[in-house]
Design a protein that fits this description.
Layout: H1 2-11, H2 36-54, H3 61-68, H4 72-100, H5 102-119, H6 126-137, H7 142-153, H8 159-192, H9 196-203, H10 205-221, H11 230-236, H12 244-252, H13 255-265, H14 268-285, H15 290-302, H16 307-347, H17 351-375, H18 384-406, H19 414-429, E1 436-437, E2 441-442, H20 453-458, H21 463-467, H22 472-480, H23 486-489
Length: 506
């Protein structure tokens, strides 16, 4: 039976060249090839829609706060609620992807959170406004399914590019909504003749419909893995249904995942914070009008068009020469520069200088996000979803803590909060120095002699599980990830002893 299944898999044809796991080894941006590139486009568009929904409120806050009598504390709490909802949702999403597949997990969450966007239109108190932002924010957990999906569809050589582009273009929603919502509001208010307190409510139907449509598109047009959906693969025996406790255990006991969750909290977490505060910051500090503040704020998020993808691409390019050690060094340098620029943003006092620094800062902080998810797919093969969820959830935790400490109430001015946030970025980048893969090394130390990719990835499976063949996909992934040795290490011989790996991940 195994022989016939393997023969059937090898006979399958794909539009893109693939590796032994049928993951695409090339990334063709303008292709709609099934299943790889279709999954890419479905993932970033759906994540984009969730970002638009979650951050639809900030560009209209000057109107909403007058309608609902929101205080500065109310606004701060609502901003915190919007990003805190996804903290545990992202971890749960990672687990759901591991067990049920990204297609079903993503489409279900998007559809379940769409009603919260619709209900924003009838919010009539600070408490109601906080609740709808909280539940809408759950949709940001689709980031995890996006990264998991790309890591399931694209080989190690291009996974950073795929993750960077899908995540970055999804994050574009945070900038696009700064333009979309004021424009929609203006059209409803001026052209249709609605009062301003009615116009902002009607405007929320646009992101709500967009989000709903994206959920149906994923469900009916998407595919979990190159060879099919989880249900079919499990029924045919091509994929075994994994054990939740084992998946979770191997994720939470891998310290690399926790470090990446911390560092992601101060690149993506900072990006979420800026999305929440930047329009109001320029509106209040430099006395620009609502439309101008929206355009300035949009330029920060719209940099994701190239900055986060650039980080993912840079991660892959550096890895071709220097392997995993190059990915780690580049992530650390870019994130540290981002911290310095954030500190500077809080210090400059003119409108033009603030805009200039903000734009450069946006490139580095978003590139660090792409670089982070150039590393994440290699932390664990068996628990990829949970590791992705931990890292993504770390981004939301960072956003919550930053807003609670620096941007809630009147303890710090907004510019002081931005400066201190820059210091936090640099401090939280230091643990990257301690990430070490025995088979590839870390920033300062080379690989452990005799350690192999098979040793690392097969250690996640017990002897009994290996006897049943559950580890076969990890064997293939280990072989394909030899590229992380870099240009010099790739010529090392492939080890032949795959049957007796260490019992734990080092």
């Amino acid at each position: 039976m195994d022989i016939s299944l393997d023969s059937e898999k090898n006979d399958r044809k794909f539009a893109l060249p693939v590796d032994s796991e049928h993951k695409a080894t090339e990334f063709r941006l303008f292709s709609l090839a099934t299943p790889h590139m279709r999954a890419f486009h479905l993932s970033w568009i759906s994540f984009f829609s969730c970002f638009v929904s979650t951050f639809a409120a900030p560009p209209l806050l000057p109107i909403i706060r007058d309608n609902l009598d929101l205080t500065a504390t109310d606004i701060g709490n609502a901003g915190i609620a919007a990003v805190s909802g996804a903290v545990f949702a992202r971890i749960a999403m990672g687990t759901a992807c591991d067990l049920f597949g990204p297609r079903l997990a993503s489409s279900s969450l998007i559809l379940l959170t769409a009603p919260a966007v619709f209900l924003t239109a009838i919010a009539n108190s600070p408490a109601a406004f906080l609740m709808v932002r909280f539940f809408t924010g759950f949709s940001l957990a689709t980031f995890v399914s996006t990264q998991f999906w790309m890591s399931s569809m694209f080989s190690p050589a291009v996974v950073g590019t795929a993750n960077g582009l899908s995540g970055g273009w999804g994050n574009l929603g945070g900038g696009a909504t700064q333009l979309i919502m004021p424009l929609v509001y203006s059209l409803i208010h001026s052209n249709i003749g609605s009062t301003k307190f009615t116009a902002w409510r009607i405007a929320f139907f646009i992101p709500a419909f967009f989000q709903t449509l994206s959920a149906f598109a994923i469900f009916f047009l998407g595919q979990d893995m190159p060879d099919g959906n989880y249900v079919r693969l499990e029924k045919s025996g091509e994929k075994h249904k994994d054990n939740f406790s084992q998946v979770f255990y191997h994720a939470i006991t891998n310290y690399r995942g926790w470090i990446l969750a911390l560092t992601y909290g101060y690149c993506f977490g900072v990006e979420l914070t800026i999305d929440n505060i930047i329009a109001q910051y320029f509106f209040d500090r430099f006395n620009v009008n609502l439309h101008t503040a929206g355009i300035i704020a949009a330029s920060f998020g719209l940099a994701n068009l190239f900055s986060r993808p650039g980080g993912g691409i840079l991660s892959d390019v550096v890895a071709k020469w220097f392997g995993m050690r190059g990915r780690l060094w580049t992530l650390w340098v870019v994130q540290m520069i981002g911290g310095l620029l954030c500190l500077l943003l809080g210090k400059v006092g003119s409108l033009s200088a603030s805009i200039a620094v903000m734009l450069v800062f946006s490139v580095f902080v978003q590139a660090a996000c792409g670089l982070t998810f150039g590393v994440v797919p290699f932390v664990s093969r068996r628990s990829l979803g949970v590791i992705s969820g931990m890292t993504g959830g770390g981004g939301n935790v960072g956003a919550v803590l930053t807003q609670v400490i620096f941007f809630r109430g009147s303890r710090y001015s907004t510019e002081e909060g931005i400066t201190l946030m820059g210091v936090m970025i640099m401090c939280c980048s230091l643990p990257i120095l301690f990430i070490y893969f025995p088979q590839w090394g870390g920033m300062f130390l080379g690989p452990t002699k005799g350690s192999t990719e098979q040793d690392y990835y097969l250690s996640e499976w017990s002897t009994a599980e290996k006897e049943q063949g559950f580890h076969k996909m990890s064997v293939k992934f280990a072989d394909n990830s030899r590229t992380e040795r870099g240009r010099k290490g790739i010529s090392a011989p492939i080890p032949t002893d795959n049957e007796n790996p260490p019992s734990t991940v080092l």
